User: What shape does this take?
Amino acid sequence: MVIRGKYCVINGLIKPAEKFKTEFIKNGCSIYEVLRVLNEKPVFIEAHLDRLQGSAHLTAAEAPSFTAIQQGISQLIAANKIDNGNIELVVNTADDWSVRFIPHYWPLPEAYENGVNTMLYKAMRENPNAKIKFTDLRAAVGAFIKQNSIYEAIYVNKNGCITEGSKSNVFFIINNTFYTAPDEQVLPGITRKVVLEILKTYKYPVEYRNVHIDELTDFNAAFITGTSPGVLPIAKINDYRYDVKQKELRNIMSLFETRLFST
Assistant: This one.
């Protein structure tokens, strides 16, 4: 199991990293969160813990207390002396949970400047509102991404509608209006939540509806959101090209970056 740093936290206790075992992650059962750490501080931690509680409710799991998790995260950061990175919280029960630093792959500056390439992928997660470990799906889509040398795979459901990315949420823009899939069909991403708050504050119109693959050419810009990429322009979905310099897109990128570094 890939881990970063010398230590992990298991059930609230600091342990050597080698004590974390693959079997701690139960396919189709474990709920989890990936949080970004900036300057030794977990970003948007309250929103992540709220979503974890939501995942626990949807899966009839019992999660540890917010206080226990926050203390575990603080211990992890202090023990490893890592200022910036990603940490993964995995919960099976209130008495069976862990936190560890994992390798992070934050996009390079040129990705934000030029956008990234993506491709459509026919898949749909079970219970999409809950963040559950599905290792088989993750492995399959990971191989697809690597084989096609793309940044992200965009999930398409059986009706030919775009839902979300394999590790991100998706937005489209046309005529100053932002489009994203209905909440009930996607994982409610934390970065997506922040972007939606920004859009509301600055009075941008938002439509929560499915975008069909036949509509891809109707939009002039698109982007993905996630813990690692933040707000990242899409240059291509399959052979469809988008304007990575589009005014509203660039404005949202700037506003999100300000919010990210001010938390």
